[in-house]
Structures are given as structure tokens and as C-alpha cells.
């Protein structure tokens, strides 16, 4: 099968598979494995505490692969300043960046005069159109099925992806519910030029910062095992259902404000679970696609199996 799409050409990668930003998990080991396997691995910049830490992680990644990679900037309502971190990406001449969780203008303006490919995560057609106007080279479209932060609308990937494809002239990358070759083929059939996966890459051997209990929870989950939290704050996000998220939803149901929720939805609470496996002290992001995750392969095994599955589907269609 010929794997060349506008996304593989844009990013100079073998397969149109992009690893999500994955707060507190997407570091050099995982990113290098994805890039070395033909996709685009990414480092999560804003989970690092300083520009020096980001520079060191980028240089570590460069020592592990000679393939293209990206740096993700998750900028949000309660995020800290990002400019000094973006400057590191510029100085280190990273091949690509992605912007998630907020208005991408500030980041895109900083890199517009540099040969860095610019991806923006969007959750609505109008957001995609605006990202194109601001200079994005491609948009990643996340449907309601996705893990982590989502759009305020309850629109699924199957509906949102072709809507965006028909509304912009830049490549569209589908995200949300994509975990295997079947869902990847579906995304391509909808007009996407590639896919982004987050949750599926957590359940791999090279996602070394994810606690085994978190990975096991992903394997044990079914289609009803995730919930959307933070909807009352206007920043909905999908996580694995546990007693911690039950408490969050209870506070939200009682009209709790940000101050009453902040200790429950903090990065520290997130890390307490995903790094230490203490699900009574925190939470872990996950998309609905976790229902279709049944093993913890290496990244290379995962991508190879996806490629084989897509090619098998194509043969079935054309035979």
C-alpha cells in the first residue's frame, strides 16, 4: 500500500500517525519510539518545569532518533506563560510543534518565520478555520470520544472530521477513538490525511512514566469506563471513571466553582494516579477507545499491527 499522504509529506514521516501530547507522559523514550517506527513522536513541553528541562529532553530525543519529531504546547485557561518554552523549540530547531488547549495565536506568531511545521488541535469547524487563518499547516480534529481535553460540543469524530475536511484547505488529522487499524482506516475514509492517538500510546512498553496500574485500568476498561469532568468550568475533559472523578462530578453537580475543584483537577492529582497508581488520590485521562485496547505492545509492534490491519482492509475492499 502506498502510504504517502499530505501529512506524511508535510512532516516527512513514513506513516501518517501522530502521538498525542500526553501531559506528564510524553517524553523522549516514547517520542523516539514513535518516530523510529515511522510516525511523529512528541514531547510534552508544558509538563516540564523549565526551559532547561525542555532543552535537555529535546536533546535526549535527538540522541535517540534521527527522524522528525514534534513538541506539544498545551496552553490553557490556567496554564503558565509559554513563550520561554516556545523559544527553546525555536532555538533547538525542532521539526514540528503542536498547540492544544487554548488560542494558538501566540505560539504560531512566534514560529511563523521559522521552518517549523505547525499543527493545531481543534474541536470545532470554526476553530479549524481560524487555525488555518492564523497560519497552521494542519489541524488535528478531536471528537467527543477523545481522552483529555475536548470541545464544548458533544460532536463525535465521525461527524466532525468530514465537516472540517470540507471547510479548510490544509490537511486534517483525525483524533478521538482511534486505537487500531480499523479506526485509522475509518478516519482516512472520512477524508483525514492522518490520525493522532493519545490513549493507545499510553498502553505501550515505551510509555515508561505511566504506572502499571494505569495501564491495567486501560486494558480493563469498556465503553462505559470513562466520564467527562470539568464541563461546569467550560473545559470538558475525558478521564477514566473512579472514586476521584465521582467526587469531581459530585462537586460540579453542586455548582462548585474552580476554587472548590482545583485540588481535585490539578496536575498533581493527575500525576498521583498516572505515575503512582493511586486511584483514590487522583485521576487519569483516557478516551472511549480504551475499550478496544487489549494489550501492551512495543510502539513498533503497535504501529506495525495497525499498518498490517489497514492494508488487509484495503485488500478486502479491492479483491
Question: Can you tell me about this structure?
Answer:
By secondary structure, this protein is an alpha/beta fold. It has 14 helices and 11 strands. The chain has helices at 6-11, 28-36, 51-64, 83-91, 105-111, 125-134, 157-165, 181-189, 199-202, 212-220, 243-253, 258-261, 267-274, 299-318; strands at 17-19, 41-44, 69-74, 96-100, 117-122, 138-142, 148-149, 172-175, 194-197, 226-229, 237-240. Helix 8 packs across helix 14 (299-318).
Q: How far do the termini sit from each other?
A: 14 Å
**Total DSSP E strands:** 11
> Mean pLDDT score, rounded?
96
Shape: globular
Order of helices and strands: HEHEHEHEHEHEEHEHEHHEEHHHH
Strand order of the largest sheet: 1-9-8-6-5-4-3-2
- Indicate the radius of gyration in whole angstroms: 18 Å
Low-confidence stretches: none
Attribute tags:
single chain; 319 residues; 8-stranded parallel β-sheet; alpha/beta
What's the short story on this structure?
This protein is of the alpha/beta class. The chain is built from 14 helices and eleven strands.
Secondary structure topology:
Blueprint: H1 6-11, E1 17-19, H2 28-36, E2 41-44, H3 51-64, E3 69-74, H4 83-91, E4 96-100, H5 105-111, E5 117-122, H6 125-134, E6 138-142, E7 148-149, H7 157-165, E8 172-175, H8 181-189, E9 194-197, H9 199-202, H10 212-220, E10 226-229, E11 237-240, H11 243-253, H12 258-261, H13 267-274, H14 299-318
Parallel strand pairs: 1-9, 2-3, 3-4, 4-5, 5-6, 6-8, 8-9
Antiparallel strand pairs: 7-11, 10-11
Helix pairs in contact: 2-3, 3-4, 4-5, 8-14
Amino acid at each position: 500500500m502506498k502510504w504517502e499522504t499530505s501529512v506524511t509529506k508535510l512532516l516527512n514521516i513514513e506513516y501518517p500517525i501522530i502521538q498525542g501530547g500526553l501531559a506528564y507522559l510524553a517524553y523522549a523514550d516514547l517520542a523516539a519510539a514513535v518516530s523510529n517506527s515511522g510516525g511523529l513522536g512528541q514531547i510534552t513541553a508544558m509538563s516540564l518545569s523549565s526551559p532547561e528541562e525542555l532543552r535537555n529532553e529535546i536533546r535526549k530525543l535527538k540522541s535517540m532518533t534521527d527522524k522528525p519529531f514534534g513538541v506539544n504546547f498545551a496552553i490553557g485557561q490556567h496554564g503558565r506563560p509559554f513563550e520561554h518554552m516556545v523559544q527553546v523549540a525555536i532555538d533547538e530547531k525542532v521539526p514540528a510543534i503542536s498547540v492544544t488547549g487554548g488560542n494558538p495565536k501566540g505560539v504560531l506568531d512566534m514560529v511563523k518565520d521559522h521552518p517549523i511545521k505547525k499543527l493545531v488541535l481543534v474541536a470545532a469547524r470554526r476553530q479549524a478555520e481560524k487555525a488555518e487563518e492564523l497560519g497552521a499547516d494542519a489541524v488535528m480534529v478531536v471528537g467527543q470520544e477523545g481522552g483529555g481535553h475536548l470541545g464544548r460540543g458533544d460532536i463525535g469524530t465521525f461527524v466532525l472530521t468530514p465537516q472540517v475536511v470540507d471547510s479548510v484547505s490544509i490537511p486534517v488529522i483525525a483524533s478521538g477513538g482511534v486505537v487500531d487499524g480499523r479506526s485509522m482506516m475509518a478516519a482516512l475514509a472520512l477524508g483525514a490525511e492522518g490520525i493522532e492517538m493519545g490513549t493507545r500510546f499510553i498502553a505501550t512498553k515505551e510509555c515508561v512514566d505511566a504506572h502499571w496500574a494505569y495501564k491495567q485500568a486501560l486494558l480493563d476498561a469498556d465503553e462505559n469506563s470513562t466520564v467527562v469532568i470539568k464541563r461546569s468550568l467550560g473545559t470538558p475533559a475525558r478521564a477514566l471513571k473512579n472514586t476521584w472523578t465521582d467526587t469531581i462530578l459530585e462537586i460540579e453537580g453542586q455548582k462548585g466553582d474552580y476554587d472548590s475543584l482545583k485540588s481535585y483537577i490539578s496536575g498533581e492529582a493527575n500525576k498521583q494516579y498516572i505515575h503512582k497508581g493511586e486511584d483514590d488520590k487522583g485521576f487519569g485521562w483516557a478516551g472511549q477507545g480504551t475499550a478496544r485496547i487489549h494489550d501492551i505492545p512495543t510502539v513498533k509492534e503497535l504501529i506495525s499491527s495497525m499498518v498490517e490491519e489497514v492494508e488487509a482492509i484495503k485488500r478486502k475492499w479491492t479483491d
